[in-house]
Amino acid sequence: MAQINIKNLNKKKPVTAARLARLVRFVYKRIPAIRHYEVCVILVSDRDIRELNRKYLHRDRATDVLCFSYCDDILKADIYVSTDTARSNARIFNTTFTEELYLYVIHGLLHMAGYRDDTALVRKKMNTLQITLLKQFTGIKA
Prior knowledge:
4 strands; 142 residues; 5 helices; alpha/beta; Collagenase (Catalytic Domain)
């Protein structure tokens, strides 16, 4: 069973919900252990994600993505993504808004699936996987 909800609470940048839902399905088809999940991707502003970061992680700063996972009989998560950060980082890293947005969603999905990035070694593996998934989904060449 797969349930995907997309909510755009930051209307500054239009986003195609159907395309994000396809991205979620694409990623989880490539992670064999994940078959039953409910995910809600919530697009927010830097101000909103900063407040979430402050409230739940006690970090008083904006960030690109926050993932809150919980399990009962299926894997569930709310993934908050800052579209403001995606827009500004696209300029910094010479990518597109869409590539940054997809990268943050993939990052949150990998966290939901149990991937970690709290040490340099696992962070490198996770970064490599998320870039690979992004390139496969978008058709971007290396």
